[in-house]
Amino acid sequence: MAIEQSIAELVQASNKLTGVVDGKVKEIDNKVLESKTKVDDFIGSARGELSHVLLSRNQIMEPTTNGDGIKGFSTIGLDSFEVIKEATIHASSTSDVDHTGNGYAAEFRKNVHGGYVNRAFHILRLKWTRGTASHPARIDNNWNNGYQQGALTSGCYLKILSGDISGDMTSIHEFSNDWHFYGMRQGVNSLNEAFHGGHSKLALSSAPGGSGEMLICLFGTVSGVVNYEKKTWGLYPEFARISDV
């Protein structure tokens, strides 16, 4: 009986110890979750305190007069490039303009963003044929202009109609009717060395000789880290440069 009683007491003590350990584990889990929440809140508030300035050009995406390019963009690596202004999105959907009758203004409003916008911008249809060279066909070859360095965020809304795209930007959000938000972010590589920016943010056709067609709007690169997980991409302020004066 003494042995059985000792075993019972040992089991009871073991169960009590297990309960204490489980309680401590739960306390630790709660503390970790609380700390993670504080860190997430701090990161979110810190991002909100930073302004974002457009480092690229022409985020409203005004095409050239003859429709063979986008003003301010340096598009390279293509044998042919056609730019069609499909629609213009205004502050209110009642003021949107459908330039071609294809209904893309209403489609964008229905599937991507139906609310207020702070400045009018265009939805463009791009048609292209990539050249036969192995070098990527970039929609905007601006990596080396002195502004695309350090902590930055690139983004755009697009819908691929045919063909494919490549580059550092990837689909972050998928909306209805094949619309996507594509984006990429980078931090500062080193505080002691020159900054480095990605060369091919968005490339047209992954293979030489390929062709394609897509709708696109609000393509641009801004300073800092934009919290695009919360679908906050929009129009950003663009300042005049010496070359513009």
Mass-distribution shape: elongated
Structural class call reads: alpha+beta
* Assembly status: single chain
- What's the rounded overall pLDDT mean? 86
Total of domains: 2
What order do the helices and strands come in, and which of them pair?
Blueprint: H1 2-48, E1 78-89, E2 97-98, H2 104-111, E3 121-130, E4 152-162, E5 165-166, E6 170-174, E7 180-186, E8 203-204, E9 211-223
Antiparallel strand pairs: 1-2, 1-3, 3-9, 4-7, 4-9, 5-8, 6-7
Q: What do these coordinates show?
A:
By secondary structure, the protein is of the alpha+beta class. It has two domains: 1-49; 78-244. Helices cover 22% and strands 26% of the residues. The chain contains two helices and nine strands. It has helices at 2-48, 104-111; strands at 78-89, 97-98, 121-130, 152-162, 165-166, 170-174, 180-186, 203-204, 211-223. The strands form two sheets. A seven-stranded antiparallel β-sheet has the order 2-1-3-9-4-7-6, with helices on one face. Strands 5-8 form a two-stranded antiparallel ribbon. A hairpin with a 7-residue loop joins strand 1 (78-89) and strand 2 (97-98). The longest helix has 47 residues, at 2-48. The chain starts with a helix and ends in a 22-residue tail after the last strand.
